[in-house]
Amino acid sequence: MKQPVDTDYPLSEVPAGARKGLWSTSILLFGFTFFTATMFAGGKIGLAFDFKTMLWAAVIGNLLLGAYAAALGLIACRSGLNSVLMGRFCFGEVGSRLSDFLLGFTQIGWYAWGTATIAIVLVRLLALPESWTMPLMVLFGFGFCLTAFVGYKGLDLLSRIAVPAMLILLIASLWTATRDIGGLDGLLAVQPGDSLTLGMAITMIFGTFVSGATQATNWTRFARSSKVAVWASLIGFFIGNGLMVVAGAYGAIVYQQPDIVEVLVLQGLSMAAVVMLFLNLWTTQDNTIYNFAAAGCNLLRTERRRLVTLGGAFVGTLLALGGMYELLIPFLILLGSIIPPIGGVIMADYFYRHRGHYPKLAEARLPKYNSLGLAAYVLGAACAYFSPWVAPIVGILVAAAAYIVLYEGQRLALSRTVLTQTDAR
């Protein structure tokens, strides 16, 4: 009996009939970027800069992040492929499993952190017994994956409900914070207590969610047009992620607290805090485990996306139970080095080598390993890891430049070989 086709197309291009408009694509990405961890990055920036400088850091960092997501989104829309499927072209049939593993690993790490976070914070907010923490991790570990199990339609439905609700709560909180600090004059009068360079601030903003931007192609490939893909990426990563950074900075400036949930509690809105926490994490967690399933399906070459989703939720829950919550900072540093170079190689391969057009994946004759892509990735990741500057951006630029140089070197070597053989005849 023939299995029904998965309408999320885990191993093939998204057909024209399954494409979505700007509202559907952008609200899904908007919900994805509404993430608690981004607020912590904003909080650190809020403590280190005056209000105007903080806004400049947020604008520059999120504009760079949005531009990166939009470039990959453009490729995803034109090709109908996500980042892990594009990886077959730039890393090879077998070599692409490296990017599958890395992208899947980062998402399962985020899933574990989010699962642990909601259980720990709920126990504290609701004054529940400590013994409830692990059972709640199991409950949310599997509960958060339900909309991802359904697929794009499930993610879309949740985002349409959750994003407006979170925006209302966020605006109400920011309005209250502005009143508590004494208006704009009071906000501008606050002097920073910590020290941080503008470059470090941009690195934090860009690096916190660059892994998500690299895998946003899982949804921008559903975009109806290139314009929709680009605008949805900018709305999600420039505006959505920007709001999270500014909200975290606001809380840090006014209440010395970057977490919007804690801010709502301080404002006397405890029930709103529980609602915000739940919606904030669910809209990111389901997208995260969906990303894991996309990488897992390509790694295992299976179309059983729902089974891979459940498997990922199981692994993520185990990591949460094992203490992943305590490893956020080193995990973020690692992500800023190993993930962005993948996007750099993909962009160089698509725009330079393939001249803006991939052949159909099912018809393409691809090598097991694309040594150019793998070498460029290693160079980009190494430079990002040791860079004193904005590590994610260094990784993207070095990986892209290295791929182009290596490709041109290979092409030149092949031309010389052909000329030599021709002369010998």
Which features does this protein show?
single chain; 20 helices; mainly alpha; about 425 residues; about 75% helix
User: How would a crystallographer describe the biggest sheet?
Assistant: none
| Strand/helix succession | HHHHHHHHHHHHHHHHHHHH
Low-confidence stretches: none
Count of helical regions: 20
Secondary-structure-derived class: mainly alpha
Q: What distance separates the N and C termini?
A: 58 Å
Q: Average pLDDT across residues? A: 89
Strand content: under 5%
Q: How would you describe the oligomerization state of the chains in this entry?
A: single chain
Helix content: over 70%
Number of strands: 0
Radius of gyration: 22 Å
Gross morphology is globular
Write up what this structure looks like.
By secondary structure, this protein is mainly alpha-helical. It contains 20 helices and no strands. The chain has helices spanning 22-33, 36-48, 51-79, 83-91, 96-125, 133-143, 146-150, 152-181, 183-189, 198-208, 210-215, 217-220, 226-255, 260-266, 270-300, 305-321, 328-338, 340-353, 371-386, 391-424. Helix 14 (260-266) packs antiparallel against helix 15. The protein is globular and about 85 Å long. The model has no long low-confidence stretch (mean pLDDT 89). InterPro entries: CodB, Pur-cyt_permease. The chain crosses the membrane at residues 21-42, 54-77, 98-126, 132-150, 157-176, 196-216, 228-254, 260-282, 307-325, 331-352, 373-406. It is found in: Membrane. Its main location: membrane. Belongs to the purine-cytosine permease (2.A.39) family.
